[in-house]
Amino acid sequence: MRNLLLFSLLLILFSANVNSNGFVEDSIEIAGQVRHYVYKYPNNYQAIDKISVIIALHGGGSNWKKFNKGTTKYTLEKAANNRQMLLIYPQGINSHWNDGRDRKNQTDDVAFISALIDKSIDQYNVDVTKVFVTGMSNGGFMSIRIAQELSRKVTSVAAVTAQMGVNNRGLNIDKPISFLLINGTQDPIVPYFGGNMKPFKFAKSKGMILSTQQTIETFVQLNQCDSKPKITVKNTRKFDNTSVISKKYLNCTGESQVELLEIEGGGHTWPGGKQYLPKGIIGNLSREINASETIVDFFLNVN
Question: Does the chain have fewer CB atoms within 10 Å around its N or its C terminus?
Answer without folding.
Answer: N
